[in-house]
Amino acid sequence: MDIDPELVALASDRLSTYGQKSFVVAGDGALGHPGRAPYSRIIATAALRCIPPALLGQASTGSVVVAPIGFGVVRATVIGPGHARGRFLPTPAHFMPRRTPGRAPDFAAVTEQPARDTVVHLPDVLDRLKFPMSLALPGCNSCSWPDEGGSLTGIGLWTEDGSTAVAHVRQTGPRMLWDTVEELAALFPRVAPAREDFALTITPAYQIAWYREPG
After folding, report:
1. Closest C-alpha to 155, from 110, 96, 189
2. Where in 89-151 does DSSP place strands (E)?
C-alpha cells in the first residue's frame, strides 16, 4: 500500500511480471485497508509517531504489528480491541517519514527569547540521545550548524506545533523542547540506552513508551 497511485501501479506491474498475485492498493497507509481486514500481520515501512488506531482496528487479537517509531522499530502484539504491547528491536531505523504537510521552523521567533546555558553536550543530541529523544518528542526535526572546521556549534529542534529550540539555548512555542533534551541527558548520562530496553503500551486512550519497567 502506498499513497502514490503511480508507484502502486508500477509495483503491481512488476509483481505481475514475476508471476506474483499480490494485492496492492493506493491510499494512506495510516488508514489501512478495512476491505480485507482483519489482518494477522501488519508491517509499516514509513516512520510513524505512534501506531495508527486504524491499523489496530483492522488487526485481529494475537496479531503482530511491526512499525518504525522514531528511530526504532517496535514489534507489538495486539492483545484486544485497540490494545497492544511490544518491545523495540535492537536494530536502528531510519525510515522515510509519512508524506504529510510539514511546518518549517520559525528560528526568527526563537531569537526573540532570552538565551540560557545548557549542560548538554551538543553532539550527544544527534548521537547518544537521538533514539530516546525521538520517543519523548514525536515528530521532532533537527538541524545543526558547524563552524569552518566542521565542529558543531549549534543545534535546532522543532515540532509541527510550532515549538522550536536552538542550543545554546533559546526556546519558543507550547513545548519547551530543550527541557526534554536535558531530562533525557540526565536520565542517560554516559552511554546511549539499548533500544530493546524500551517498550510501547497502546490503548484506545494513549500510547506510551517506557524504559525497562512499565510506566
Report:
1. 110
2. 141-146
Task: Give the span between the Cα atoms of 183 and 138, in whole angstroms.
Answer: 15
Contacts of 92 (CB under 8 A, 6+ apart): 71, 72, 131, 195
Residue type, 43: I
| Single-letter amino acid code for the residue at 191 | V
Taken in order 183, 120, 117, 104, the sign of the CA dihedral is: negative
Intra-chain end-to-end CA distance of the chain, in Å: 34
- Backbone Cα Rg of the chain: 20
Return d(Cα 90, Cα 192) in angstroms, integer: 12
Between β-strands 207-211 and 72-80, what pairing exists: parallel, antiparallel or unpaired? unpaired
Residue with cell 541527558: 185
Along the chain (215 residues), what's the average pLDDT of each consecutive run of 10 residues? Answer: 92 91 90 94 91 94 95 96 95 78 76 86 89 92 86 87 83 91 92 94 94 75
The neighbour count for residue 44, using CB atoms within 10 Å, is 22
* Cell numbers given for 98: 509519512
For cell 536520565, name the residue: 187
Cβ-proximal residues to 81 (8 Å cutoff; 6+ apart), any chain: 56, 57, 61, 204
CB 50 within 8 A of CB 207: yes
